[in-house]
Amino acid sequence: MNRNQTMILGVAIVILAAAGGLYVLQSRASSGKTSLVVSTTTSLYDTGVLDVVEEAFEEESDVDLYFISVGTGLAITHAQRGDADMILVHAPSKERAFMEDGHGVCRKIIAYNFFSIVGPGEDPAGIEGMSPVEALQTLVQLGREGSAVWVSRGDDSGTHTKEKGLWAEAGFDVNELVEEGWYREAGAGMGKTLQIADEFGAYTLTDMGTYLKYYKDGLIGLEVQVGAGEELINVYSAIAVSEVSNPDANFEGAIEFIEFLVSEEGQSIFAGYGVDTYGTALFNPAVSLLSDGGDPTTASWIEAAAYFDGSECPADYRAGQTKLYR
Amino acid sequence: MASEILEGLLKALTLIARGDPTLTEITLRSLAVSGLATVFACLWSIPLGVVIGLGRFRGRRVLRGAFNTLLGLPTVTLGLVLYLAFSRSGPLGSLRLLYSPAAIVVGQAVLITPIIISFVSSTLEAVDPDVRELALTLGASESQARLTVLGESLGGVALAITASFNRAIAELGVALMLGGNIRGVTRVLTTSIALETGRGELSLSIALAFVLLVIVAAVNASVNLVRRRI
Questions:
Q1: CATH architecture assignment, domain A34-113+235-325
Q2: Contact between chains at A69 and B181 (C-beta distance less than 8 A)
Q3: What does pTM read for this prediction?
């Protein structure tokens, strides 16, 4: 064999080996189970609660969960483009648009917690205990005087959507605030935004799950200044992608997973997650609260914030899955 | 800062010593995905590099310039463009590659193509033109003369392959956008580092980065050994 033939043989062997390797890698990925791609908000995935959910669900189901952790905005875009079978999100206004566009069906509220306005421990703006609207108005005033700084997510996530809504309630237009020096856009995830706010001694809006994790681990020193209350309720929902808008979506799998999330077992995972580590649950289960009325005040807050036309999912959007809405 | 890095190093060593199954799995997947991407990219990039480096045709400079420019393409942008292509509503959606290891392989192969082409073509240009002339005078055909020049610059080609593998295994944008960082399926070293940083697990992040650096260092060292032999 001359040198050229040896070279060609060598290249052929490498190509065959590579093709074989790719095949093995790819087939390992599909374990024979049907896969369910769930685009989820970062606050649910990055806190680790979905790892526990995944383990419990996959134990009893033939559906393999593929979580893609992105902001609520991108999660909805994924679903619209046909790249996700269902979404877990927390921005009711966007969820409603997603459903009205014909992409989302079978919405179920699965959990809630509260957003908080956090800031430096010594609270230079003195907003502790104020209502969110008062607090934001105070921060604008002090910010313009140069004695307070606000850090915004600025990434179109669920938390950012909530923040924009709060500024509107307080009578300000975010598009104008971003032009002012004291209002800084991080354009980053929650953890990064908290660290930036901590660095600047600034105030920011955060979901409690991410905040508690960072606070307990000593990564930030920010303290909660404005906490639990009607205006700051944070409601997480699951929405399946409609079979009509995307016939290829794994609709059956999505319904099976939603049923699990709202089942007693699924809800107890939310109730228990984080209790050992943080002394308090990071998320509260919402299903029994909304059905048996054990805590009418909180239930009415959830209804005001996240119900559409008096229901978590109006009858037109139930896609025949009445068992979810008994 | 120093204490966190030390803590990360210690964590890396404990995880490695324990043979942590998750770490092993993620590391092997990273090696396989980026190794495959490098092999596939070489298939078309080395011949193209040879053509551009030794060819005499119109537009050669423009082509070289184009590939040199692509060296500066941000990985997030490439990831986004390929996501749009592989998305179910995109032109290649029917291949069903999105969120699979193969998608990352394709993405990284595209990412490193300009690196190999640029390195190979410049290393060939740097070979003394007399080598080629001599081969031709001694009766070699045009393609045999090209192979001779390529043989003279194997060191540069090896460098091109190493640099592109390192680029592939250390990039984040493509792996995140095309793979989705799905546990047990498309989670590789860089996407785990990003996830654990977001989760505030800083020492674990540093541990993973340490593993990544060890791999890159090992690859470099072994390629250097081989290069000295040729």
A1: 3-Layer(aba) Sandwich (3.40)
A2: yes
A3: 0.88
